[in-house]
Amino acid sequence: MSMSGHKPGGMHASRKPKDTKKTVQRILSYMKNYRGKLIAVFLLVIFSALAQVASTYFLKPLFNDYILPFVGKQNPDLSAFIRMLGLMAVVYAAGALATFAYNRLMITISTGTLFQIRSDLYSHMLKLPIRYFDSHTHGELMSRFTNDTDALRNMLSQSFVNIFSSFVNVLGVFIAMCILSPILTVVVVLMLVLMLFIIKNLGAKSGKYFREQQISVGKVNGYIEEMTEGQKVVKVFCHDQESRDGFDRLNEELFNASKGAHTFASMLRPIMGNLSYMHYSITAIVGAVLAISYGLDLGSLASFLQYTRSFSQPITMMSEQLNSVLMALAGAERIFEMMDEVPEIDEGTVTLVNAEYNVHGRLKEADHRTGIWAWKQSNDNGTIDYTQVKGDIRVNDVVFGYEENKTVLNNVTLYAKPGQKIAFVGSTGAGKTTITNLLNRFYDVPEGNILYDGIPINKIKKSDLRRSLSMVLQDTHLFTGTVMDNIRYGRLDATDDEVITAAKLANADSFIRHLPQGYDTLLTSDGTNLSQGQRQLLAIARAAVADPPVLILDEATSSIDTRTEALIEKGMDKLMEGRTVFVIAHRLSTVRNSNAILVLENGSIIERGDHDDLIRQAGKYFQLYTGMFELT
To answer: How far is CA 55 from CA 1, 80, 175, 413, in A?
Structure first.
């Protein structure tokens, strides 16, 4: 469960893509539903670019056929000239309309594509095993949904179409230049080589800093998230200044990276702008020489000079968009890496169903809640067996470790008969919570086996296995929503009356009714407007409404004072009645009435018995209970 090697916020937030071709193919596969719109975008981009090229070419006939012949005439006929201007206006307007149309289409395509990517990413995340979340920080995972998808959105909606448009524009302008004057085109090519050399060097430097900037953004976001969640701890230990110093260090890294990135990026446009003016001047001088000495017509020169002004802009735009594309592809690669993570493997076939007894006293499946649960098993011969869920749990010779060559449980064997309350006590790290993780199949058992009503739990579908168990964790998590919604999270089809009954069972009803809107009070920020004890009472009520055959209480009363604990003890006894219950507790007073108490040490069970038996043995439990040895 170690998270070493992973930094808050995802330190690997940005880098060059490892496999650009494969990543682009994955992105295109998401865009296949928009194939018709993409074809329309390509055609509109080409039309828009060619319209811009054609409208500039109109300067040649305007000068040669109209403006120059009109020089010296007192009453020239302007009708043809006006028609030519009207035609130019139509071409310009058509190009502008095409630009508007393809931008609108790209918004639809990009937002729809990202919608599907986010949906698939979130759906896949829900299928990943707990082990994956144990080895990745929240900030690192959040960056997939925020920084990476934002970069991808920018590429799909802007960079992609801008690069293609610029390429078509440059190609069209270059062809038009070759037609107008091959000699002047050579001048353009020489200047283009110089521009590309500058773009390559400045682009490489800015690209390096842009990647560092994205990494720094991930660090800052992760740090802010961590400090916000731990604000009480920061204030309790008076670490405000240390927290500020840590933020300042990360913020300075972001500042330096951003400064470098935007310095070189900002240099690119003015340098290219000045080069374009220089280019224009050189072209004008050479063009004037050609016009005077070699018969180049003024219309061709005017069109060529206009093309010269518009030639460098799309090249600059392509270079500026390149870094965005690289970062977006790197972000997309990280998204697809998460999608390619192996989901939880579930080979179970046994399912949990509502059941009832027929007139012959045999179990049969029911289509409504009956209060009786059964395991449904399909046999090879086509028959179906039903086994009533009683909560008989057997753990046999289990060896387990979160990391290779580092076991947490060593040949653990235990049993819980239906309706028994089994308590685990022992020092931190002894393996208590690990046992409950294995019961839920958050992790699979490599050695040994666990039987649930005689059925190996790896044969039970994970969702059905977990539906038969209900857990109250030490760290209570409440969702944004009403109190009623948070309790109903235990069973979404529970009625309001069943929710209230569960709250009464957990002794939460009294404080809930004193809230501003009672059960309709809105909880936010993980229920920070409630005390820790109240939050834990809601967690107990959530488990109660689930009405499971097996209940796991992991330090469920650790945040409840002794007075509150005494108040809910009867309710808890009623909740545990008829169920198999596993209790993990440091407060030994909560486990006195357990049917069996298991003392764990270094991943092994060293004592088992009820409270009186273990006191008589005068072993580790006796030392813990009498205070001769403290739980640490």
So the answer is: 65, 17, 14, 85
Helix (H) or strand (E) holding 604: strand 604-609
Strands 409-416 and 393-400: antiparallel
Give the three-class secondary structure for 383: coil
Which candidate, 471, 472, 453, 469, places its Cα nearest to that of 415?
A: 453
Cβ contacts of 347 within 8 Å, gap of 6 or more: 458, 459
Which one-letter DSSP state was computed for residue 63?
I
Mind giving me the DSSP string for 135-175? TS-HHHHHHIIIIIHHHHHHIIIIIHHHHHHHHHHHHHHHH
Look at residue 561 and tell me whether its pLDDT is greater than 70: no
Q: Which residue has the higher pLDDT, 560 or 548?
A: 548
3-state DSSP percent of the chain in helix, strand and coil, to 5: 60, 15, 25
Strand ranges (DSSP E) for 336-468?
Answer: 351-357, 363-365, 373-378, 384-388, 393-400, 409-416, 421-426, 447-452, 455-456
> pLDDT band at 572, cuts 50/70/90?
low
Residue-range domains of the chain with CATH: 20-339 (1.20.1560.10), 393-468+548-625 (3.40.50.300)
Segment 317-375, tens digit of pLDDT = 777 677 778 778 878 888 998 999 888 888 888 999 988 888 888 888 888 888 888 99
- Give pLDDT, residue 394: 93
| pLDDT above 70 (res 557) | no
Identity of the residue numbered 386: Y
Question: Whole-prediction pTM value?
Answer: 0.73
CA 622 to chain CA centroid, Å, is: 48
Name 551's bridge partners.
470, 581
CB-based contact 441:391 (threshold 8 Å): no
CA-based R_g, the chain, Å: 36
Say whether 490 sits in a helix, a strand or coil.
coil
Give 254-264 pLDDT, tens digit per residue.
888 888 777 77
Secondary structure (H, E, C), 189-222: HHHHHHHHHHHHHHHHHHHHHHHHHHHHHHHHHH
Binning pLDDT at 50, 70 and 90, where does residue 315 land?
confident
Integer Cα distance of 169 and 44 in angstroms: 12
Tokens of 622: 């006796």
User: What are 279-287's contacts with CB under 8 Å, separation 24+?
Assistant: 279/188, 279/191, 279/308, 279/311, 279/312, 280/305, 280/308, 280/309, 282/187, 282/191, 283/184, 283/187, 283/188, 283/308, 286/183, 286/184, 286/187, 287/181, 287/184
pLDDT score, position 115: 92
Per residue in 175-199, pLDDT (tens digit) is 888 888 888 888 888 877 887 777 7
- CA–CA separation, 391 and 387 (whole Å): 11
Going by DSSP bridges, is the β-strand pair 481-482/522-523 parallel, antiparallel, or unpaired?
antiparallel
Write out the two tokens for 385. 């067996």
